[in-house]
Each structure stands twice: as C-alpha cells, then as structure tokens.
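Section 5: illustrative case.
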C-alpha cells in the first residue's frame, strides 16, 4: 500500500520526524511537553517519541507558559560557544517557552511560534538555553517581535521557575540564569542548535 505525501503511515518522532518550522530561526515549530496546568514534569522519550513522566514537581512552582522544544535542534558545541559559562551542551533539543493568551491545557501539540528572546541557563555546567516565543497570530501576543514587547513580570516568572524547578532543600543549587537576551541573540541560538543537530544526526 502506498501513502500520499505528506501522509505518515506511522507517527513521526517529535524530535526527529517533525520540521523546525516555517521560517527558522524567526518562526519555528514548538512541540509542547508541559502546560501551565501541569504539576508533573513530562519529557519526550528519546527512543519512542512518546511523553514519559520525568518527575513530579517537587515544589508548588508551575510553568508560567507552554513548555517544550524545537524539533531537529540539538544543544551541542555551537550552542555552548554562545554560552560562555558553559563547558558543554546538554545534548537535548532546544527548549522553548511559548506565550499564549488563550489557555492551552493539553500537551503533545505543535504550535507555530515567533522567537522573541531567551534565557541563558547553565545547569551543572551544561548550556540549557530556554527560548522565549509567542504564539503566532495570537490576538494579544501575536504582534510581539522582541523581548521588550513582553512584560517584565512574565520574564521574571520564567526566570524564577527555571531557577527553582529542580531545587532540593539542603542541596547546593547547580542552575544559574546567566543572562536574559532579546530576539537577535535568540535567533543565533536557534541557528546554532539547528547546525548542531545537522552535525549530530545529519541534515
């Protein structure tokens, strides 16, 4: 039996089987793993492509936005080079947070997102940037093109969430947010992650 393009006989792997978006590094696809309503940390299983429970959230902190990754990206040497405090990439796809005015309460969805900025996070010496984006055509956030178009309070919530989401009382914290950056640098990080992916897995 033959299948017409772009029909998939089997479900494509969300990391390797989906494309990075309409116009990366500016407009990208985001595969959503976690919503602001989740108290459990879900993460895509690298072998199967299905969501796996990573861990329950230890604290009462919840993600302020949709949270997932950009397909066909990889945090390797090029992403590390843009993060001076890092010694290596984390070996995962590039994380992305997407602002949406209307509540989206389910994961395993693909959204079109415009890159507006990011957080340069270092986790145990590994580059673990968090790209900040807005849902394309969103009636509130859709006009945003840079991080200055996003209220400081929302950026601060993201900083606080990622600074504390692995916090264990009595243990030394290994996470640091080294800087907050705008769209220009964020797009460089996306480009670097696409090139890292091509090096690691092929074009």
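Designed sequence:
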């Amino acid at each position: 039996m033959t299948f017409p393009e772009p029909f998939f006989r089997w479900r494509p792997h969300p990391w390797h089987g989906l494309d990075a978006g309409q116009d990366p590094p500016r407009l990208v696809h985001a595969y959503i793993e976690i919503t602001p309503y989740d108290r459990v940390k879900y993460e895509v299983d690298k072998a199967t492509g299905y969501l796996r429970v990573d861990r329950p959230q230890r604290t009462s902190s919840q993600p302020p936005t949709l949270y997932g990754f950009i397909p066909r990206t990889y945090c390797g040497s090029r992403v590390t080079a843009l993060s001076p405090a890092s010694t290596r990439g984390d070996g995962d796809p590039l994380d992305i947070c997407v602002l949406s005015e209307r509540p989206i309460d389910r994961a395993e969805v693909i959204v079109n997102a415009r890159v507006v900025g990011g957080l340069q996070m270092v986790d145990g010496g590994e580059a673990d940037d968090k790209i900040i984006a807005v849902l394309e055509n969103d009636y509130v956030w859709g006009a945003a093109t840079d991080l200055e178009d996003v209220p400081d309070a929302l950026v601060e919530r993201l900083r606080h969430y990622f600074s504390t989401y692995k916090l264990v009382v009595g243990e030394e914290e290994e996470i640091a947010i080294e800087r907050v950056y705008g769209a220009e640098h964020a797009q460089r990080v996306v480009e670097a992650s696409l090139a890292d992916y091509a090096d690691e897995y092929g074009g």
